[in-house]
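Hey, sorry to bother you again with one of my protein questions. There's a protein on my desk that I can't quite get my head around. No rush at all, and the record is pasted right below.
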Amino acid sequence: MSKAILIALVLGIGAGVVMPENVSGFLDTASSYMLLILLFSVGIDMGVNREVFGQIRRMGLRILVIPLGVILGSLAGGAVCAMILRMDVKEGLAITSGLGWYSLSGILMTEAGNPIGGTISFLSNVFREVLTFLLVPVLAGRNVYTAIAPAGATAMDTTLPLLSKYADSKTAILAFVSGVICTLAMPVLVP
Protein backbone atom coordinates (compact mmCIF):
# COMPACT_ATOMS: atom_id res chain seq x y z
CA MET A 1 0.00 0.00 0.00
CA SER A 2 2.87 2.41 0.75
CA LYS A 3 4.17 1.95 -2.79
CA ALA A 4 0.73 2.74 -4.21
CA ILE A 5 0.53 5.91 -2.11
CA LEU A 6 4.00 7.03 -3.21
CA ILE A 7 3.23 6.28 -6.87
CA ALA A 8 -0.08 8.17 -6.65
CA LEU A 9 1.71 11.16 -5.10
CA VAL A 10 4.41 11.22 -7.80
CA LEU A 11 1.82 10.84 -10.58
CA GLY A 12 -0.25 13.63 -8.98
CA ILE A 13 2.75 15.96 -8.93
CA GLY A 14 3.42 15.15 -12.58
CA ALA A 15 -0.22 15.77 -13.50
CA GLY A 16 -0.20 19.03 -11.56
CA VAL A 17 2.76 20.29 -13.56
CA VAL A 18 0.97 19.85 -16.91
CA MET A 19 -2.60 20.60 -15.75
CA PRO A 20 -4.27 23.91 -16.66
CA GLU A 21 -4.71 26.26 -13.69
CA ASN A 22 -8.50 26.51 -14.04
CA VAL A 23 -8.83 22.81 -13.09
CA SER A 24 -7.24 23.29 -9.66
CA GLY A 25 -10.36 24.94 -8.19
CA PHE A 26 -12.44 21.91 -9.15
CA LEU A 27 -9.86 19.56 -7.66
CA ASP A 28 -9.88 21.46 -4.35
CA THR A 29 -13.65 21.11 -4.14
CA ALA A 30 -13.61 17.45 -5.23
CA SER A 31 -10.89 16.50 -2.73
CA SER A 32 -12.80 18.22 0.08
CA TYR A 33 -15.90 16.15 -0.71
CA MET A 34 -13.84 12.95 -0.96
CA LEU A 35 -12.28 13.67 2.43
CA LEU A 36 -15.75 14.17 3.92
CA ILE A 37 -16.88 10.83 2.48
CA LEU A 38 -13.80 9.11 3.92
CA LEU A 39 -14.38 10.68 7.34
CA PHE A 40 -18.05 9.67 7.21
CA SER A 41 -16.99 6.07 6.46
CA VAL A 42 -14.52 6.06 9.34
CA GLY A 43 -17.24 7.49 11.60
CA ILE A 44 -19.59 4.64 10.65
CA ASP A 45 -16.84 2.13 11.40
CA MET A 46 -16.28 3.73 14.82
CA GLY A 47 -19.99 4.00 15.60
CA VAL A 48 -20.65 0.34 14.82
CA ASN A 49 -18.20 -0.77 17.51
CA ARG A 50 -19.96 0.45 20.66
CA GLU A 51 -17.57 -1.18 23.12
CA VAL A 52 -14.75 1.08 21.93
CA PHE A 53 -16.37 4.14 23.50
CA GLY A 54 -16.61 2.33 26.83
CA GLN A 55 -12.91 1.50 26.60
CA ILE A 56 -12.12 5.13 25.87
CA ARG A 57 -14.16 6.23 28.91
CA ARG A 58 -12.27 3.74 31.07
CA MET A 59 -8.97 5.17 29.84
CA GLY A 60 -9.86 8.56 31.31
CA LEU A 61 -7.01 11.03 31.26
CA ARG A 62 -4.62 8.38 29.95
CA ILE A 63 -6.10 9.18 26.55
CA LEU A 64 -3.99 12.36 26.64
CA VAL A 65 -0.68 10.44 26.72
CA ILE A 66 -0.48 10.01 22.94
CA PRO A 67 -1.18 13.64 21.92
CA LEU A 68 1.08 14.99 24.67
CA GLY A 69 3.82 12.64 23.51
CA VAL A 70 3.31 13.77 19.90
CA ILE A 71 3.50 17.44 20.89
CA LEU A 72 6.51 17.06 23.21
CA GLY A 73 8.33 14.81 20.73
CA SER A 74 7.75 17.28 17.91
CA LEU A 75 8.99 20.18 20.03
CA ALA A 76 12.05 18.23 21.17
CA GLY A 77 12.84 17.36 17.55
CA GLY A 78 12.50 21.01 16.57
CA ALA A 79 14.83 22.12 19.35
CA VAL A 80 17.46 19.51 18.47
CA CYS A 81 17.29 20.28 14.75
CA ALA A 82 17.56 24.01 15.45
CA MET A 83 20.73 23.45 17.48
CA ILE A 84 22.23 21.19 14.80
CA LEU A 85 21.42 23.73 12.06
CA ARG A 86 22.59 26.63 14.25
CA MET A 87 19.31 28.48 14.07
CA ASP A 88 17.31 30.11 16.82
CA VAL A 89 15.75 27.39 19.00
CA LYS A 90 12.56 29.43 19.28
CA GLU A 91 12.28 29.41 15.47
CA GLY A 92 12.90 25.65 15.38
CA LEU A 93 10.17 25.14 17.96
CA ALA A 94 7.74 27.30 15.96
CA ILE A 95 8.49 25.38 12.76
CA THR A 96 7.81 21.98 14.32
CA SER A 97 4.80 23.29 16.24
CA GLY A 98 2.82 22.94 13.02
CA LEU A 99 2.30 19.30 14.02
CA GLY A 100 1.47 18.40 10.42
CA TRP A 101 -1.00 21.24 9.76
CA TYR A 102 0.91 22.68 6.82
CA SER A 103 -1.86 24.89 5.45
CA LEU A 104 -1.91 27.08 8.57
CA SER A 105 1.52 26.76 10.21
CA GLY A 106 3.39 28.27 7.26
CA ILE A 107 0.94 31.16 7.06
CA LEU A 108 1.28 31.90 10.79
CA MET A 109 5.08 31.94 10.52
CA THR A 110 5.02 34.16 7.43
CA GLU A 111 2.52 36.59 9.00
CA ALA A 112 4.77 36.77 12.07
CA GLY A 113 7.43 38.28 9.81
CA ASN A 114 9.41 35.14 8.98
CA PRO A 115 8.70 34.11 5.36
CA ILE A 116 11.68 31.74 5.25
CA GLY A 117 10.53 30.07 8.47
CA GLY A 118 7.01 29.93 7.01
CA THR A 119 8.30 28.13 3.92
CA ILE A 120 10.33 25.71 6.02
CA SER A 121 7.32 25.10 8.28
CA PHE A 122 5.07 24.48 5.29
CA LEU A 123 7.52 22.03 3.71
CA SER A 124 8.37 20.18 6.93
CA ASN A 125 4.68 19.67 7.68
CA VAL A 126 3.93 18.52 4.12
CA PHE A 127 6.81 16.05 4.38
CA ARG A 128 5.47 14.92 7.75
CA GLU A 129 2.11 14.06 6.18
CA VAL A 130 3.73 12.27 3.23
CA LEU A 131 5.94 10.28 5.62
CA THR A 132 2.84 9.41 7.64
CA PHE A 133 1.24 7.87 4.56
CA LEU A 134 4.39 5.82 4.00
CA LEU A 135 5.07 4.86 7.63
CA VAL A 136 1.62 4.00 9.00
CA PRO A 137 1.37 0.62 7.22
CA VAL A 138 4.79 -0.33 8.60
CA LEU A 139 4.38 1.07 12.12
CA ALA A 140 0.85 -0.26 12.63
CA GLY A 141 2.13 -3.77 12.10
CA ARG A 142 4.54 -3.35 15.02
CA ASN A 143 2.63 -1.15 17.48
CA VAL A 144 -0.60 0.62 16.47
CA TYR A 145 -0.07 3.43 18.97
CA THR A 146 3.26 4.46 17.41
CA ALA A 147 1.49 4.75 14.05
CA ILE A 148 -0.50 7.70 15.43
CA ALA A 149 2.55 9.81 16.30
CA PRO A 150 3.77 10.85 12.84
CA ALA A 151 0.26 11.94 11.84
CA GLY A 152 0.13 14.76 14.39
CA ALA A 153 -2.84 17.04 13.68
CA THR A 154 -3.72 15.11 10.50
CA ALA A 155 -4.75 12.11 12.61
CA MET A 156 -8.22 13.67 12.83
CA ASP A 157 -8.71 14.15 9.09
CA THR A 158 -6.48 13.26 6.13
CA THR A 159 -4.55 10.37 7.69
CA LEU A 160 -7.44 9.05 9.82
CA PRO A 161 -8.76 6.71 7.09
CA LEU A 162 -5.28 5.21 6.73
CA LEU A 163 -4.91 4.78 10.50
CA SER A 164 -8.38 3.23 10.62
CA LYS A 165 -7.47 0.79 7.86
CA TYR A 166 -4.26 -0.46 9.47
CA ALA A 167 -5.43 -0.41 13.10
CA ASP A 168 -8.59 -1.23 15.02
CA SER A 169 -11.52 1.04 15.89
CA LYS A 170 -10.12 1.85 19.34
CA THR A 171 -6.88 3.08 17.80
CA ALA A 172 -8.81 5.12 15.22
CA ILE A 173 -10.66 6.88 18.04
CA LEU A 174 -7.40 7.50 19.90
CA ALA A 175 -5.94 8.88 16.66
CA PHE A 176 -8.93 11.17 16.20
CA VAL A 177 -8.64 12.50 19.79
CA SER A 178 -4.90 12.98 19.32
CA GLY A 179 -5.49 14.86 16.07
CA VAL A 180 -8.07 17.14 17.66
CA ILE A 181 -5.75 17.99 20.57
CA CYS A 182 -2.80 18.62 18.22
CA THR A 183 -5.02 20.78 16.02
CA LEU A 184 -6.14 22.85 19.01
CA ALA A 185 -2.55 23.17 20.30
CA MET A 186 -0.98 24.23 16.99
CA PRO A 187 -2.34 27.81 16.75
CA VAL A 188 -1.21 28.38 20.34
CA LEU A 189 2.26 26.83 19.92
CA VAL A 190 3.38 28.33 16.59
CA PRO A 191 3.26 32.00 17.65
User: Anything to note?
Assistant: The two ends are 37 Å apart (CA to CA).
